[in-house]
Design goal:
The structure is a single chain. The protein has about 240 residues and is an alpha/beta fold. It has a single domain, classed as 3-Layer(aba) Sandwich (Rossmann fold). About 45% of the residues lie in helices and about 15% in strands. It is built from 8 helices and 7 strands, in the order βαβαβαβαβααβααβ. It has a 7-stranded parallel sheet with strand order 3-2-1-4-5-6-7, sandwiched between helices. α1 runs parallel beside α2, α1 crosses α8 and α4 packs parallel to α6. The protein is globular, with a radius of gyration of 17 Å. About 45% of the residues are buried.
């Protein structure tokens, strides 16, 4: 069970990249962080090592965010172990690019399931207990692609745009229970998600003329999860170097 004033967080897709940076940032604030991942145990273990190196605390929690029953059981395990879940960060995501005219159905559905349907799968059991406790923070990592669109990423842009709508709608549903629901919208960040993309073209579109760092996204998430952001609800915070 939680100790007095101990906060518990779940970060999905926390094995690498932005998710790892978010997990480390939250742990640095004294929050116990559950590190969700799908299959790369070594990478997730590295996230935990970084947390512990900073005197933080956390635990590995593998489950498939595209499966509603698996997600429900994972949340129940947290509640059984800690008694509460104060913070949820929906970060898990993939891309599978291609022009829509030639996109296979699996490429569409896998991106929608991982990026968007996972929001329902994980957030539903979490928000039910937050409503009961009358407090909570939910932050979702969307993307500038969901706001401006990106050629070759119709599936990804659709999923990320859906997260923006879901964030704004849920914020209206639960705002009167001391629960805030917000999103951060990264631009081009130095992660594996950029593999295979045209970096010269990308740089030309960014006013800051550089890629963002995962830690810069993590700082924004950590703020939205804090008590200082108690009156910020239903908002989409861009971390994009002026891209949009």
């Amino acid at each position: 069970m939680t100790q007095d004033n101990e906060k518990i967080a779940l970060v999905t897709g926390a094995g690498k990249g932005i998710g790892r940076a978010i997990a480390v940032a939250l742990a640095g604030q004294g929050i116990f962080v559950y590190i969700n991942y799908l299959s790369d145990t070594a990478s997730a273990a590295q996230t935990l090592e970084e947390i512990e190196a900073c005197n933080g605390q956390g635990a590995l929690l593998p489950f498939d965010v595209t499966r509603s029953e698996d997600s429900k059981k994972a949340v129940q395990a947290i509640l059984k172990d800690k008694g509460a879940l104060h913070i949820l960060v929906n970060n898990a995501g993939i891309r599978n690019d291609g022009l829509l005219a030639m996109m296979k159905e699996d490429s569409w559905q896998s991106v929608i399931n991982t990026n968007l349907t996972s929001f329902y799968n994980v957030t539903k059991p979490v928000v039910k207990q937050m409503l009961k406790n009358r407090s909570g923070r939910i932050v979702t990592v969307t993307s500038a692609a969901g706001q401006m669109g990106n050629a070759g990423q119709v599936n990804y842009s659709a999923a990320k745009s859906g997260l923006i709508g879901a964030t704004k709608a849920l914020a209206r549903e639960v705002g009167n229970r001391n629960i805030t629901v917000n999103a951060v919208s990264p631009g081009f960040i130095e992660t594996r998600m950029l593999n295979g993309m045209d970096m010269d073209r990308i740089m030309d579109t960014i006013p800051a003329k550089r890629l963002g760092k995962p830690e810069e996204v993590a700082h924004a998430v950590a703020f939205l999860c804090s008590d200082k952001a108690a009156y910020i609800n239903g908002q989409i915070l861009g971390v994009n170097g002026g891209l949009i």
